[in-house]
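Progress narrative, work stream C.
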Amino acid sequence: MIRTILPGRPFPQGATWDGTGTNFALFSENAAKVELCLFDDPCSEETQRVELIEQTAHVWHAFLPGVHPGQIYGYRVYGLFDPERGLRFNPNKLLIDPYAKALAGKVNWNEPIFPYPLGNGDADLMVDASDSVRGMPKCVVVNPYFDWDTDRPPKTPLSESIIYEVHVKGFTKCHPEIPEELRGTYAGLASRPAVEYLKKLGITAVELMPVHDFLDDKILIDRGLRNYWGYNTTNFFSPDARYSSSGDTGGQVAEFKAMVKTLHREGIEVILDVVYNHTSEGNHLGPMLSFRGIDNPTYYRLVPDNPRYYMDYTGTGNSLNMRHPQVLKLIMDNLRYWILEMHVDGFRFDLAATLARELHDVDRLSAFFDIIHQDPVISQVKLIAEPWDVGEGGYQVGKFPVLWAEWNGKYRDTVRRYWKSDEGQLSDLGYRLTGSSDLYQRDGRRPSASINFVTAHDGFTLHDLVSYNEKHNEANGEENRDGANENYSWNFGVEGDTDDPVVLTLRERQKRNFLSTLLLSQGVPMICGGDEIDRDQKGNNNAYCQDNPLTWYDWNLSESRQSLLRFTQKLIALRRSHPNLRRRKFYQDRAIRGTPQKDIVWLRTDATEMTDEEWNAGWVRCIGMMLNGHTLQEVDESGLPVIDNSFLLLLNCHHEHIDFRVPAPPNGGTWSVVIDTNEPDLEPGSTRPASGGLLRLVRQSLLLLREEEPPPMSAPGK
């Protein structure tokens, strides 16, 4: 029993242990009273309620001596229940601290966690007096101290980054070399087999799908499914304990930190996929878990002339109120927490256009961007936007501020269309291969602003992209109505699994075409985790609810899957070895430094330079892109010019073989073939085509040639 209650401090918000006790602070501008509820364990009844009588700038606070890490707690907040004015206070419902650093337990949908009696459409206008305590997760006071030893962020330049989008559980759940008790956890991702795989693959950063504590939706539970992806956040500060091998009473925090520390030691950065555009409380008929009961009009965008309802720019029921200072503070505090306390290296912002909506339109100079730009901590990490939402005017590719990189949806669409041999893709493909200067150069950004991808968690895997003409999401229980329509006709004659050797050969080559295009384009490549080992979701392009072997990585690698892995490793190693394949600046298609040489030359199959008329016609399906390695316009750490090999990239998306006349190398050397998507195990340099000769590109294939420099001339004898 707590006997001494001191006034405490309004900041920092949340529960903060200082070695002698814990300070509790909760923001609520419209509350009439706030009670702190203490528990002996997550399943017990309340042992004590403490009224927070101190209030400073709308923050209710108290200091409790003797309260230590492991203490379980929650809040009850009193005030008006008047939904038509946007007020939904209900002290019968236990609430999660928005700043809680760990949560114990999960929501029980069978308990009365809704603030109104379930019934007809107007039920949300009435108060439900049932206590929700048995159905609610509880907050945990955590120990902030951790032995980081000499941990330092790798700080890999974005231009040199290769991002691997990965699901914590899916990556390790079936890995036979990881101890069973660690599979599917943060510790599993940090285990020796997992780290060795990532190192050998060659990626520089893992982009973790959401790890903030999130909710399994009732509609999914009723179908016997789960929220697998995690884009339904309940609490932004708590690493979800479902990925913890250390329990849910605080151990998940230390386990996450240990994972980051291990990955950093191997030079691998950790980027978090974060969901600040909405929460798991849904619309006006959703449950009361946290923000809704603490201060509904502060935290949520309400319909201006009918605040009973929520603005919804994400299709999930609500949108956070980015116009309110407390919400901006919450997000900035949260970003700084994950950087400073959890040591993460960057963030990918889900549906980021929503965060820019100060009024209705997307405003690229919104307060959210202004605050991040001036923040000395947040502005220094990797900031990646998913630059769209479902609201009007929500597609904002190329329109984010200078500090930001963006998922380049135009890159994905163009590359897919090109390899499907669609008409009119040539000019757009030129931009995508060279860093999308049409999107990013005009505002001072560089090719690294373009996060290039062909596949991601949302959509087909690479295997399914070339194996299915239409989505097959029947397992989701929505009669295949969910998920985007990714309708492709690859002219392979059969959909799904097949034993036809011709079809299999074409599919395998298309996979290699996509991976090669991705890793040989300027910008920052992002690989959808598992594509390199041919991960198969049976045509399900919206597997958000499939927490089962359909989405878990299958580590039983056949020879064809091992071949694809080796090919991917070779591509990554090649990219990392050659600055000409990952330039920091955009190409200049004109003479450089007073020489007749150009950065880049676009070639026809007869080895002559393409004309403007051919670019505009857009029907050419086989092109060459020659990259001069002597015109990088970059210097190394010593200030000396960077010089690299020159490369010739040849692409043939046509359904027939095409002979390409080999041009003379730009710097007097000789060409060698280093990548051939028709021969994945080709030894680099084993093929040396003669200048002026013909080099065959089989149907739908890609070749990369490297100029091998001539040996230096011997000094004349004396």
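Work stream C, second folded protein:
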Amino acid sequence: MRGLRFASAGFEAVLRVVPWAFAVGIVPVVFGWGGGHDTLNEFAAELLPEPVKAVVPEAARRDIARFSHSPDDFTPWEKLDKVTIHPDDLAVLLAHNMKHPYSLHSAQGQAVNFILLTRAFQAQSPERIAYWSACLLHTFADEAACNHDPLIHVITYAFREGYKLDLAPTGVLDFAQVSRTAADREIVHAMLADYQPSVLSDDPQEALVQIMLHGLAANEFMTQRGARIAGTFARTASPEQLADGRAALAELGGYGVRTGADAIWTAYALAAKGRVPDLTPAVEQQYQARAKAFLAQRPLAHDSLFAEFLAPVGGPAIGVLVEPSQSMNHARLGFSGKYLSAAIMRTLRGAGTACRLVDIREADFPSPEQMPVAILCAGGFNDAPTVEHLRAYAAQGGHILLIGGEHRDVLGELSAGLGKAPEARLPVTAKYGQNNADYLAALRVQFTGGLEAELGTEPYPFRHNPDTKAGWQKPRCDYVLTTPQPEVQILARLQDGEQTFAIAGLLVDAQGKGTAAFLPEYLVSPYLLTDSPALDDPSRLELDEVGRRLLLQVVKRLSP
């Protein structure tokens, strides 16, 4: 079986799956819906079939909303003060190394949650049913929460909360914002009007696999709507665009309601037949295999921020290497590389430069004749096939612009000069949260190596702090040019008031022509060194003025 469909009329999302990849360096805590969890759980409780309501009376159903935020808690189960976990449930949780409610967010945590919900139905315990229903609805909804879309995420945690950019007040981020008024709720009710909960599978082990795969399907459903929701922050948005963006956000809430209610109904049906699932190694293996198959086939077009760039391009064109989203912050390259790659594409096209997206899942990359320059926003860059493809491409004469993140030695002599300087005070730290407040004001970026004509001779301070308090989009790069290489031209230096570090470089051949370049992500990431131009429409993000000039100059030097 290649995949599955959650039975939700109008909200179907076909699962396709890729190898689990690699989170980018840090494992942060970024919550999904805020008040939207309460509303979403209320809608789900209303939609539960009558047999479930017969077991869970109205007072207990109200607890489904009351406990809607329970998984956002790192308190050990034994120390929770608002609920007492049944001893049988606690034994199951600890046996699966689930130490606190937040651990329910993982695919394995959702599986254990579903097992506990089925056991609660078997015991006909309204309180336990309500609690485990609330937790499962929360984590299911989180997987489709719009702040986990690559574009909406940077709007949320960088542009709005971090940099305090002047975005349109019409922007919406939470299901609560589109389900608050009577008119809003009527729209959501209309979306749910034809819905009837469906059993995922009569086989308890198959049902458990589908529960674990939910995050992949939910992510795909969510990223198809990211650009529409981002458009609500545009100052140029028409009333029709605003209505469409709000509808897209409501669809995400409806998806969480439907898929969560399906899971609850399935737990009830299995308990009624005395068939409680078990999280076995065979279930884990089936999940991993189907996740891999799903992600291998997930269309790149289902990331809405890439959709406009997928038309075929004739003739030679610069390639921007990208990957589809997976689930939450999992990535082969980096979470921030998606929105940054889209901004680079839009910037190149605006300058009249032929360019195309290149999916890193392709068996072979275009030749240097078809792709004279390859641009990679590398992030954590934990993908062995892409490393090998880039090395082969460079050996054939291809030129690489790597925006790091990691570089994995794909830049020849330029990579040989890159290293980590423990004493360097860099703009983005390795730890989660904001950790540079005591020195950021002293940092300056100075462009050199012939870039002065475009970017000036005066050092740039950071206008906004890239080391945001929350978010997966921090433009982290730990590398500086520690070892001088005669073939490497220095393009930028970082000054901290005491020391100066070379942070960007261009590898040149014997004729002085660029063959590879390395730029730290914080030099290209928008709105760190300048506020120009104003961000009028985040759904059509481009590089800022400094990033645009830097990109175009480096691409020019790399282009044959």
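The chain has two domains: 36-296, 301-558. No further action is required on this item.
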